[in-house]
């Protein structure tokens, strides 16, 4: 005698085995459509303060953050800009933002940071004693800014301007402009140094200081 229950169960099991399984097996990863990676890193802007100088003729200055070529102009070597921010684009290129709201590629300028005096402390109150000789570790065709202790520019007088212009005919200055020490020149440094925001400033005598980051001291 045929067991009808067994036969029916066998038929159902066979049907289930033969039918396609719609559900994804446990532990398997369902296939997803492949999409092109169109994401880019977000742009970042960092507040800074300093001066940027064009290092060649034909440096492009963009009039807005979108860097449209039709909204730009070029400047000559030695043109200076007051910088208020550093703008890092999603493509990795870095630009300086000027006080006029314009943008210059970082690699096309020489940047010198301004001195912040908010946390200035005197580390060596003694003055007058020479502690070494400083060589300006910078491009010989340019220079680094000299500062007063309260963060103001030391300016060229007539004699200093004439001496600079004699040695730098392609990058002349005028009396009253911010005074700089030429790259690769050597100067006496005295003990009355100070620090601001972790940066050391060497004393040149009197109220004249330079950023130690641009100096080789011997």
Protein described:
InterPro entries: SlpA_C_lactobacillus. Residues 173-213 form the S-layer protein C-terminal domain. Residues 1-30 form the signal peptide. It holds the Pfam family SlpA. It is built from 2 helices and 15 strands. It has helices at residues 4-18, 158-167; strands at 44-54, 59-62, 72-75, 80-88, 94-98, 103-105, 109-113, 121-122, 130-136, 143-145, 180-182, 186-196, 199-203, 209-211, 215-217. The strands form 3 sheets. It has a 7-stranded antiparallel beta sheet with strand order 3-2-6-5-4-1-7, with no helix packed on it. Strands 8, 9, 12, 13, 14 and 15 form a 6-stranded antiparallel beta sheet that branches. Strand 5 (94-98) and strand 6 (103-105) form a beta hairpin. The longest helix is centred in the first third of the chain and has 15 residues, at 4-18.
Count of structural domains: 2
Number of strands: 15
- The ordered H/E elements are HEEEEEEEEEEHEEEEE
How many helices in DSSP terms? 2
The portion of residues forming beta strands comes to 35-45%
Give the termini distance in whole angstroms: 111 Å
- Rg, nearest Å: 33 Å
Main sheet summary:
7 strands, antiparallel
Structural class: mainly beta
Overall mean confidence score, pLDDT: 74
- Show unreliable segments: 11-40, 115-127
Cross-sheet strand order for the largest sheet = 3-2-6-5-4-1-7
The share of residues in helices is 10-25%
